[in-house]
Amino acid sequence: MASAREIVITGLGVASPIGIGREPFWASLREGRSGVRSLGWYANRDLPATIAGQVVDLHPERHVRPRKALKVMSWDIQLGVVAADLACIDAGLDSQPVHPERLGVLFGADMIPCDLKEIVAAYRGCMPAGKFDFRLWGKKALAEMFPLWMLKYLPNMAACHVGIARDARGPNNSLTLGEVSSLAAIAEAKRVIERGQADAMIAGGTGCRIHPVIWSRHEVYHPSQRRDDPTRASRPFDAERDGMVHGEGAGAFVLEERSHAEARGAKVLARILGQASAFEPRGRDKPLEGRAIRASIRGALRDAGLEPRDVGHVNAHGLSTKIDDELEAQAIHDTLGDVPVTAPKSFFGNLAAGGGAVEMAVSVLALEKGLVPPTLNYEHPDPNCPVNVIHGKPMEVSQPTALVLNHSRVGHSVALILGASEA
Questions:
Q1: Per-residue pLDDT for 1 more than 90?
Q2: Whole-model pTM?
Q3: 236 and 126, same structural domain?
Q4: Whether 65 and 126 share a structural domain
Q5: Contacts of 379 (CB under 8 A, 6+ apart)
Q6: Are 241 and 259 in contact (CB under 8 A)?
Q7: Domain shared by 139 and 59, yes or no
Q8: CATH number of the domain that 331 lies in?
């Protein structure tokens, strides 16, 4: 059942392929602008994917404190720190601060591949005869590496840097759970406040899948091959979808107990009503059936004390792959009936560990603005995806609640229910 402590969202920050910050982000959603594009030098290589949802015009130095910390931040971490800083500014933490001992951080992240430019010299040092020799790595390669290079790529460093920058001395933790990472982090941050361990939490996630190491596993990820028009490649639930689009981005929120938010004069953006997670084992000869998705939806409803008819819209995972969309659509239909569904990945692709937070920002803004953005590229309904997809134009909010859903390819599913700022 719902907790006696009402947990609310008072700040929102995004660093995404469709905008940096809440207003540019919302403008792209409202106007139907995709952030999927061709990737410059990647486009001329024989790689499984040459399009992606890419973040452009980002200036991390405006948000990273101290600025010298950029030297030990990978791109994933920079995205996360920017999103967190924007969320804190949005929540008014500079003018209406939270006591440092009662402010915590919980972030989702991925295992972060090393930037290729950083290992070129080390790699070449192990190729005296034109062929890589593993025996030379310890002697030749490490001398070419930046001494603190490992600190740039540890997935817990996003939460650490946010904590340092914001002097957040409360609980600090990181979750590395693939595509469900950031939604799981937000759900756990809510529990931290409910347990009385913090008054406010900075929670979200960051991820980047624009990397050849990720793309080399194309048989796992099933990327779209629509290279002629990148903006039409991500097509959740559409009958002509042919795979996911990789992307990068980060989202973050400031969570507080309502009484604490009101005491410091913060504006409430939305309420977190309930959440649940579930897991369905899969194996080589045992494909997923969507049981975890159904269980997480039902669990979130129970936690919020709501019925299926109380859900105004579903913010779906909408991966744009054939099997994943079918499983999710059937699970949504079985548990929630003909509820309206939007799939933000149609705008920016799969942001990995950052996806859930950026997608959740869509629904927070939808509840605030009174409009649910449509799903792009939904033109041919798939009879195997029996869901009521919002498409063509935004839908006016009539029921001020949203269920945000993420699931991973290994069987983990997380659902979180939002309500408008006032019941």
A1: no
A2: 0.95
A3: no
A4: no
A5: 235, 238, 240, 391
A6: no
A7: no
A8: 3.40.47.10
Same-domain status, 122 and 166: no
Based on the structure, what is the number of domains in the chain? Answer: 2
Q: Is the peptide bond before 24 cis (omega within 30 degrees of 0)?
A: no
- Collect all residues with Cβ–Cβ distance below 8 Å to 185 and sequence separation of at least 6: 106, 107, 108, 173, 174, 175, 203, 204, 205, 357
Joined tokens for residue 160: 């650490």
How far is C-alpha 195 from the chain's CA centre? 25
SS3 231: helix
Examine the domain organization and report whether 263 and 362 are in the same domain: yes
- Are residue 125 and residue 269 in the same domain, yes or no? no
Q: How far apart are CA 364 and CA 402, in angstroms?
A: 8
Per-residue pLDDT, averaged over 229-254, amounts to: 97
The predicted-structure confidence for 143-181, as pLDDT tens digits, reads as follows 888 888 888 999 999 999 999 999 999 999 999 999 999
Buried/exposed 91-101: b ≥16 CB within 10 Å, e otherwise? bbbeeeebeee
- As a whole number of angstroms, the distance between CA 300 and CA 313 comes to 14
- Residue 395: partners with Cβ closer than 8 Å, 6 or more residues away: 313, 340, 342, 371, 372, 374
Q: Is residue 347 situated within a structural domain? A: yes
pLDDT value at 284 more than 60:
yes
Same domain? For 414 and 331 the reply is yes
pLDDT at 42 over 70: no
Q: What is the pLDDT of residues 185-234, one digit of tens each?
A: 999 999 999 999 999 999 999 999 998 878 777 666 788 988 889 999 99
pLDDT for 87-125, tens place per residue? 999 999 999 999 999 999 999 999 898 888 888 888 888
Structure tokens at 404: 């945000």
DSSP states of 49-113: --EEE---S--GGGT-SSGGGGGG--HHHHHHHHHHHHHHHHTTTTTSPPPGGGEEEEEE-PPPP
Asked if residue 215 belongs to a domain, the reply is: yes
Q: Shortest CA distance to 269 belongs to which of 10, 7, 5? A: 10
Please compute, for residue 391, the number of CA atoms within 13 A of its CA located in the half-sphere on the CB side: 16
Token readout for 123 is 């790699």
Provide the token pair at 375. 């799903």
Residue 319, SS3 per DSSP: coil
Do both 230 and 133 map to the same domain?
no
Distance CA 215, CA 328 (A): 24
